Amino acid sequence: MKRDVVIVGAGPAGIFTAIEMLKRGSRRRILIVEKGEAIEKRRCPKHQTKRCVSCKPYCHITTGFSGAGAFSDGKLSLSYEVGGDLPTLIGAEKAQETIDYTDQIYLSYGADAHVEGLGNEEEVKAIRRRAIQAGLKLVDCPIRHLGTEKAQEIYYAIEQDLLQKGVEILFGYACTDLILSDGVCRGVCITNGKDSQEIFADHVVVATGRRGADWLEKLCAEHGIAHAPGTVDIGVRVEVRNEVMEQVNNVLYESKLIGYPRPFKNKVRTFCQNPGGFVSQENYDNDLAVVNGHSYKERKSSNTNLAILCSHNFTEPFNQPIAYAQKVGELTNLLGDGHILVQRFGDILDGKRTWPEELSQSNVRPTLPDAVAGDITAAMPYRAMINIISFIQAVDHVVPGFASYETLLYSPELKFYSNRVKMDENFDTNILGLHCLGDSSGWTRGLMMASAMGVLMGRRLAAEEA
């Protein structure tokens, strides 16, 4: 099979590459290879089973058209300051212009026109003042909230539009390898478990998301694709009552706080805040269960959840940061018998595990009903745990009640980013014809920045035809 452009992965980076190529009048034959299902066929059985059943061969929440985006809280961060390090590669001004442009595309497919976090200048100043006093930085980023259920509608509209305009999408096929010769990427090898094919193309775009970070890391090592060890984030998902977060939720919707707590001074940050949201479980390869959070447009809970992530950057001789984070997750899963662990913050400070009956008596009731009450400190590395505890206590000065005894911490919350692929501003790697986008490239984090990176890739590919 021969195509002009092969895109591996139908997440935001991959699909926005195709969208922009079409918008620019490209006549190239585009094929997207996705190992998951079309979005209309993606189903998580947990609504019926009430507990995760570890779907095989992959988790429907993280795999399929639009990647994890369709089943996430669906928040688009509209500032270049949020979403990874792409601005350092292309420049802050270009990054912001592309985000604004990409946002208009989402609106054209039905995204809510309302933007959270605008206005309320005096209230924002008061929150920032408290953050400064606590040694934290507040990043007040405008948010366009799609909502988990609305995100699925938007990405379905995108999927159907691409198909109608001639983009081929091969569902149920995983990319197993790249076809390289003489320093040039000629195509990809794919399989559905029964049938294997080789697809040749002038350009191969790898956009496999966080789920594919480990796979891409191995390919980089095997094929000599220039890269450098990347960052991994290890942390927890925190859940509190809405009343505790009421001011921040109303004023900012999502408060992005960053700190460097003593004694280790690792970067620790809040991420993915979900007012009235629900804590969820996702399954990665090798049955690794990780925690996440969702926020719906209509369906609301009594709690707010958000991630607290501690960034780890390793130096020589260690060069397997993803494997390190996976081991932390595996150990936590072992303690929880394959499920997510949950513990009260006060119990952590008291050096004791949390028991199920204690959760049933608390003001904060878990929105992840099959989470196992236990002791996350038995698996969390000391450095990360101390950073998280110190950060939570600092946030308590900004949001009184955040560090209460009953605050819930779920583990493991892990964000895998590929060893950062070395590329120029045109997303060219040292392998001619190979480009790496989105979270798997190590340059972006989240829906909007990955989508914007896809837009820029689409422009570059379309411009070659002129």
Short description:
It contains 13 helices and 21 strands.
Could you walk me through the main structural features you see in this protein, from its secondary elements to its overall organization?
The chain has helices at residues 12-23, 46-49, 86-90, 92-108, 121-133, 148-164, 213-223, 242-251, 321-335, 345-350, 356-360, 382-398, 447-463; strands at 2-8, 30-34, 75-77, 137-139, 143-145, 168-171, 174-181, 184-191, 196-206, 227-228, 231-241, 256-259, 268-274, 278-284, 288-294, 303-313, 341-344, 372-373, 408-416, 420-421, 434-436. It starts with a strand and ends with a helix. α1 (12-23) packs parallel to α13 and α5 crosses α12. The protein is built from 13 helices and 21 strands. It is globular and about 60 Å long. The strands form 5 sheets. The chain has an 8-stranded mixed β-sheet with strand order 4-12-13-16-11-19-17-18. With 466 residues, it is an alpha+beta fold.
Which characteristics define this entry?
466 residues, alpha+beta, seven-stranded mixed beta sheet, 13 helices, 21 strands, 26% strand
